[in-house]
Amino acid sequence: MKQKLLNLTPFLSSILSKNSKMDGRIIVLLFLITYFSMIYISSFVMPYVQFWTYLGVPSMSPSFADLRDITSALECYRQGFDPLVHNPCDPWNRPMNYPRLWLGLSSLGLDQSHTFILGILQAILFYACIFIIIIKRLSVSEGLFYGLILCSPAVMLAVERGNNDLMIFVFLSLSVFLMQKRRILPYFFILMASILKLYPIVSIMSALREDKKRAIIIMLMVGTLFMIYMIYTWQDVILIGTTVPRSANLSYGSRVLFDGLNPIFQSISGLGIPEHFRTLFSFMAVLFVLVASYLATRLAFIQTHTQNKLITTQYIDSFRIGSIIYIGTFIIGNNWDYRLIFLILTLPQLFAWFKIQNPLSQCSVFLLIAILFTMWASFFAVWFSGLFSFVFSLQKTGNHLVFLIEEIINWLIFGCLISILLSTLPDWLKTLLRIETPR
């Protein structure tokens, strides 16, 4: 397998270096225009909800369901309800499962009638950050790849639901942009994103771009402020944790594989996997991958003599943020697939490593293919399920097959990103972690 990747890398790299006259971002834009035009045209012959489902995106009506969770909460909050406990204004009667700070928007008079325009504006900001900040000039081949990524079911699930992870992506993109100017402001954006959604606090790891003293001070300051916020809002954090919906479908994370296998085992043997065993299995699997990735990184670094090539590109900041968010959220347990949008932040660095033929090139090849697959997995599940049902009269077999492949790939992505992050740590931290710096 490794030899195949070694042979494949120069070939793919030569393809990506061609067609340099045309900016591939035009292709990405054409992908998006075509995609949304199809959604619009389909609404004349069938409900757009149905058509979107064919593309692997389980659409909901009324539109922008996740954003509506907030706008409906603003209505109920002005009526005297505590929407984190009870939100009867929501079409699905869901309590708001976001930090209470979002209720500050109630003073602007926002309600569900503003949901559609807010959803559109949020999507525009998301795509604008990608085109202006994250991706630079692209080759035609890169444009095709990014076009497939941005039209994938995982990304479109975030857009269709109007999930506020899109705004978190905007905050973190602005942080990446400002880091190039070496100001304190980018870490303020990270803190704001963390206050709004909690999990982005792990992206403070991007402060490792600074020298040792400055990095430690920044991480301690931001971490302390975040901990004060967590202590002050702890009851809300607990409440949100009990109301956030979780599933093994359309999800990634350490618990997803074991939660997904549970109904399969039940259907085969009549016995399921108890809750505490699923928790234990996921913990042990995460621990195993962490240790294996650490050991693999140490062994690889003993043989590596090109350390300077690992972090010399301008994309390492966005790579670190995208990687650590995937790793951190993966460890937590279950995350809806729309959170895979943060893997977009890793793509420019993966392409850069891929093209300069350094020790991480083969790993970059795998990650690019794996990310593309996992973002399109729900599309494959829809059509494989239909295919197996039509050919073999096995309705769920195709879905189960895609699920197992996707979960294996997600765990491999998890391990690869850990190894690469360890590989690109500054020397002082590698010494602390006993990861030998090559000489």
Give an overview of the whole structure.
The chain is mainly α and 439 residues long. The chain has one domain. Helices cover 65% and strands 1% of the residues. The protein has helices spanning 2-16, 25-42, 48-54, 65-78, 115-134, 140-150, 153-161, 165-179, 185-197, 212-232, 234-243, 256-269, 275-302, 316-332, 347-356, 361-392, 397-423, 427-432, and strands spanning 251-252, 335-336. It has a two-stranded antiparallel ribbon with strand order 1-2. The model is unreliable at 11-19 and 302-308 (pLDDT under 50).
Protein traits:
single chain; 439 residues; mainly alpha
What is the element layout, followed by pairings?
Elements: H1 2-16, H2 25-42, H3 48-54, H4 65-78, H5 115-134, H6 140-150, H7 153-161, H8 165-179, H9 185-197, H10 212-232, H11 234-243, E1 251-252, H12 256-269, H13 275-302, H14 316-332, E2 335-336, H15 347-356, H16 361-392, H17 397-423, H18 427-432
Antiparallel strand pairs: 1-2
Radius of gyration: 22 Å
Q: Which residues form runs of ≥5 with pLDDT under 50?
A: 11-19, 302-308
N to C succession of SSEs: HHHHHHHHHHHEHHHEHHHH
Helical content (DSSP H or I, runs of 4+): 55-70%
Number of domains: 1
What percent strand? Answer: under 5%
General shape: globular
Distance between the termini: 29 Å
Number of strands: 2
Mean pLDDT: 86
Largest sheet: 2 strands, antiparallel
